[in-house]
Structure formats: structure tokens, C-alpha cells
């Protein structure tokens, strides 16, 4: 697939709609290619001109006496079907379509876009866009977007926003040490889609890390598959906009894409190994760290500081983001003790306590000792380094620069990442420039430095998890479960009744409560005999009443046949009062669940971008209020399920609080994996809710089950 995008590395470019007007894109594109010394052939196309900027102008593509790898089409939307046909007849494999006014604009634009795509498919032309800012390939000096002073480098960019791409390029130019490989403005994804570009970047030797700005994905499932492949070999840093309803609306009007739920997108993307950043000003710094530094084998981080304030801030930030600050070995502490003054803190964080004021090279000695420690996998240096010549004495400048060289060499020597925070970072002192040139990222903000280090550790963990995954066999659909679904469909129902949902789960060896369906008061005696003299729960079974508590159609702690008759009568009366024409099958009766336990929810829905998605979190009546839930795409792996249990905000509750025992994580994970198999075996189940599930130290109890059919 990626090989078909070789035109993004072109040796010849045609500018369709070339112009002599300096304000037109058809002029500026040629001007930029000439200025930046594009090594390939440039063919201006315009039937009204014979020459543009010293280049012979051709009336059409067919008249060009050479092969053309890529066409930049600068003409209006209405001309595109004909222009794409001309590309196909000439044998042009790829075209960048700048024009807007397609599916993102109106119904007529959508019709025109479809006509253009049909033509492209007929003639074998792949299209970038439409509604795109263009593309560039710095290593070919092929700049078809018009950004100035592009610096070749190893960071690739995919973006649905030309302004976001310009922002990233400008930030790289300002910091003076970030270069880029290839940029593609994906536009409407009318033909080529995000996952195809991602495959291209995965194969591109010039690209070490990929940045993606995404508003919506037309084929989210394919993107996840591509990301899982690419993230095995190189990082993908993604910023997903449209996190709010207003943001989602803006995204749709901008690209015609479906933004979808941010929580779903974040969970599914992280599951595939993607590094998702939540702040746009973190995108490039995180990408830089991932491009320059090795991912650590664990989340064990050491802090080296020349001040307690920065050390404390860094320790708090790392801990809050799930990193570990291990205790240094006795041998390491002894080495540090021999280097630093008695007042120094030798735990982790290590505070030099003035030990570097007169000799900043002590930083390198300390870093060497810390990185030698088997308990440490990464080092964060915070404080004043880089400004000792300013803060204390100009004579320290050469020493500090030499120290920077030593620190830079330690990344390769120890195979462990180093990131430095310095309050002097904006001043770009010689020592900090030296350090950065040696491959050590430098940041002014402690929080940004921490975020970069955390992203490195999490990418390393994700890559190991993905590499260890083995695709499981898809479970065959149970004949009994299929029969239940077919019965519901034959009755014209779009949902399973609760006892049917329980029976379907039971067909896949999922434990469900013992229950009896009483279709009339006469059935109550038999139900009482079957279930015994125990407190019972009774609830209506009706296709028309999904939220039974709201209808007053649930009775709890019912004991004895007399109470059962009273409860039955009340449930039926309340149900009919709630919905007069409700189709009532009866009342489901089951023993009350034992007291205690933690209420959790497991649900599955069919996301329009990513397909089947599982949700896990705290359950009960407050799930929609607290929204302490996380998401992963199906199929689910054991490591996915384990991560979900550890990702909710209230994860401590699962571990047991105030004397309560921890829940049976193994049983919950097993249930999640079985539910994953059920929903993959039955794609007709478009929504499944098990809420609440009571999780105990020795298993779980399903209290309610709901399934919606598509």
C-alpha cells in the first residue's frame, strides 16, 4: 500500500493551472520549487502561456514529452473531474488537489467530489485532498505548500489543518534544531486516507517519528491497524481535536469528517501504540524526544537537581503521571556522597546542595553515577544548568560546555534517555546549544520536560505490549445465542429482553444469576419453589421499558409468595402507567445479589470511526454523571483489559479501601475478554451494557444486562 505513494518522493512535478500572477498558487509553487532548487523536472501547464519563470509552459499534460510523477492541481473544483482524467491518461500516479468546495461545503460539492473520485479510480490516479494545503518533501526540495525556509529532518507531519502544520514548522524554525521530512495535508480524505499515509511514513527511511493532527478519521479501524504496525518500529505522536461538542461541530464543518467521541478515540489510539498529546504546544517537543532518545525499558526515573524547588515540582509531576522514582542503590549513594557536599540529598531526587556552584562538571559526575544504577532507566536534570556562567561566574562557561558534551555522550553510552530542564533555556547559552546538538532535549518548563520523559516511557511500554500480542482466533457464534437473536428479529424487536440477554451470555460460559420469568401471577408459586425462601429481586421484562427503575418497575428484597404477588401487581401497574401500550412479557425474578462489592460497568458500542469499542469503569446509577470510564477497541487482549482496570480515576477502589478486600481482577478480566468474544461473534449486537456488575474478592455478580440489535 505504501509503495503506491511513491509520488510523494517525486522526480518530476506538473503544475496544472500555472500562472504568471504572483498572487496565484500556480505561480508561487513554481517560484518555490526554483528557489529551493528542486532537483527534478518542473512542468508548468497552462494553454494561455508559453513560458513562466523561465520554464516552457505546456498547454496540457498530454503535450509534456516526459513522464510526470506528481501533479499539483491549482484549478477550481468544477474542473477537477476533467483534470484527473487528463492525469490518468498521461500516466500521472498522484495528484495534489488544492481546491475546496467539495463535500466539506455542500451537497453539490459532495456530488462533484464523488465524480472526481470515480474518475481517479477509473484511471488509477491517487489523490491528496481535496481541500488541502499541499505537501512537501524536504529531502527532495519538493515544496508544494509554500512554507519558507524548510529545514530537512526526520519528523513527518500528517495534518487536517494547514495552519497547524505551519505552526509546527514555525516552532521548529524558532527553536533552531528541528527539521522535517515530509508533510501531507490530508484534506477531505476523499481518496487517500490517514492510514495509507501512515503506512508510507512507516516505510520512509527519512522519517523517524510521525506527527498527526486529526479532527476525524474516515476509516478509524484501518488507522488503528496501520498505527499498530508503524508503532512497532517508530513513534506516532497524535493530537486529536474535537474533544467537546462545539469542537466536534467545528471539525465537521472544516473537513466533512466525523470527529466522534474523544474518550473513545484516545483509548483506541493509545491501545494501538499511538502517543496522544492533549496540548497542542506539546506536540513538537514530544516528537523531538521520541526522535532523539531511546525509549526506556521501564518507568523508573531519577531526578538530578541543583535546587529543592525544581526537584519537588519534577517529583510531583512524574509521580502524578504514573512514573516511579526508585531508591538508588547503596553503591550509587556512596559514589554520590564522595562527589557532593554533606548537605546533599542522596535519595531520589538527588539535590546537589550547592555542590555544582563552583564546578558544574560535577553534574556529569553525578549523572554518570546515577545512570550506572541498575534501578534507573532514565534521567531528568532540572534547575540552573546552562546558566552557571551567568548566575555565578563567566569563567564557568567553558567548564559548563565541556560538561554538556559529557552529558550528551552518556545517552548512547548507557542507552538511557536524558532530558534537561533549565530556566536559562530561552537564552540558548553555548552549553545548552552543545547539549542539544549532542541529542539531549532542553526545555524551560519542568512540566514539559516531564511530559516528554513520560511519553518516552509510555511509548516503550506500548511497543513492548504490541510486540508481545498474538492475534487470537475469532470465537464461532454459538448456535443457541444465534437462535436468541433470530427470535428477537422475527418479533420485530431491536433489543433482547433481559432473560434473553442472560441466556446469550450463558451460551458463552459467562456466569449469570439464577432467574425465573413469571409471565402471569400463576407462575409465582413455581418461581417461589424454584428460588426458595430468600430475598428476591423482581423487575419488568418489556421491549418498551429499558430503564426499569425510572418506571417504578423494580422491587427488591421481596420474600415469600404473598409479597411476590403484591410486587408483581405493582410492577405491572407502574409499567403500564409509565407506558400505556408497553409490550410486557412478564416479570423476571432472581435472588438478591449479596451485599457489598464494587459496582462496575462493562459496555460495548459500535463507534462510527473505530468499530466495536469496549467501555469499563465505575458503574451503577452515577456512571453517566461521574463518567469515570475508559475505552479500548475490540478484539481485547489480556493486557488491554489490565490497563483498563488501572486507568480509571477510581482505580484505588478496585484495590480495596477502608478495610474492603480488593476485587477479583482476574475474574473481571476474564469477563471482559469473554464479552469481547461475544460481540465479535455477533456483530448484530450494536450496544451491550452490563450495569451494574458487583465485583467481589472472589468473583462477580451480573445485576442487569441490556443488548441492542442493529
Description:
- The protein folds into 5 domains: 1-146, NAD(P)-binding Rossmann-like Domain (Rossmann fold); 160-166 and 181-292, Rossmann fold; 294-468, Succinyl-CoA synthetase domains (Rossmann fold, 3-Layer(aba) Sandwich), CATH 3.40.50.261; 514-592, 2-Layer Sandwich (Dna Ligase, domain 1), CATH 3.30.1490.20; 598-709, D-amino Acid Aminotransferase, Chain A, domain 1 (2-Layer Sandwich).
- It contains 24 helices and 30 strands.
- The chain has 710 residues and is α/β, with parallel strands linked by helices.
- The relative contact order is 0.06.
- Strands 9-8-11-10-12-13-14 form a 7-stranded mixed beta sheet, with helices on both faces. Strands 20, 25, 26, 27, 28, 29 and 30 form a 7-stranded antiparallel beta sheet that branches.
- Helix 2 runs parallel beside helix 3 (107-123), helix 5 (194-203) packs parallel to helix 6 (220-230) and helix 22 (638-647) crosses helix 24.
- The protein starts with 11 loop residues before the first strand and ends with a strand.
- A hairpin with a 2-residue loop joins strand 3 (51-52) and strand 4.
Summarize the structure.
By secondary structure, this protein is α/β, with parallel strands linked by helices.
Question: What is the 3D form?
Answer: flat
Treating each run of at least 4 consecutive H or I residues as one helix, how many helices? 24
Helix percentage range: 25-40%
The beta-strand count equals: 30
Give the strand content: 15-25%
